[in-house]
TrEMBL record:
Residues 1-20 form the signal peptide. It comes from the Eukaryota. Residues 22-190 form the CREG-like beta-barrel domain. The keyword Glycoprotein applies. It is found in: Secreted. This is CREG1 protein. The keyword tRNA processing does not apply. PANTHER family: CREG1 PROTEIN, PROTEIN CREG1. Keywords: Glycoprotein, Secreted, Signal. The gene is Creg1. It comes from Atlantisia rogersi. Pfam families: CREG_beta-barrel. One of its GO terms (cellular component) is cytoplasm. Belongs to the CREG family. InterPro entries: CREG, CREG_beta-barrel, Split_barrel_FMN-bd.
Amino acid sequence: MAGLLLLCTAALLLSLPGGAIPPPEEAARMARFVLHSCEWGALATLSAQDGLRGRPFANIFSISDGPPGPNRGSGVPYLYLTDMEISVQDLEINANASLTVSLAQTPYCKKHRYDPQNPLCAHIIFCGSIVKVNDSEAGLAKKALFSRHPEMETWPKDHNWFFAKFNITNIWVLDYFGGLKIVTPEEYYSVKP
């Protein structure tokens, strides 16, 4: 019976886009894993809008760090944006932002019956800035985003969509009890997801 339970748990873990979930002591790998397992995140900006100027403003954005599958993520959160979007207008004034991604959007937390606020339902908070990608990186961003969000290819061309990335400066990991873990960008990009 214990063997069957172990086999079922392994099958559940391997069903995530990023493969098996890393152990809590590997915070940098956990951050890479959670980002690659998620297809959207909450992006918080400082509002430039009348009535909200200077206040925090969060909005949902589709993201991707690469095509689905284990070991396919770059760790770079890519976005497909238009200047018509309210949060992008905020970013034009102040490019600083934070991005939160959570395993709550995957089957993992639901199958374990973890509430999204439970630390075992891991979430990652990235701080940094949003920057347009250069021409040499645009192909990578397009492949990453359109492989997970094929509908994007059909969005209205007159909206002047562009590829951007989240330039990570700080990373906080909450994946276990006992508080946040700090991961440097160097640690984050140096681990294999």
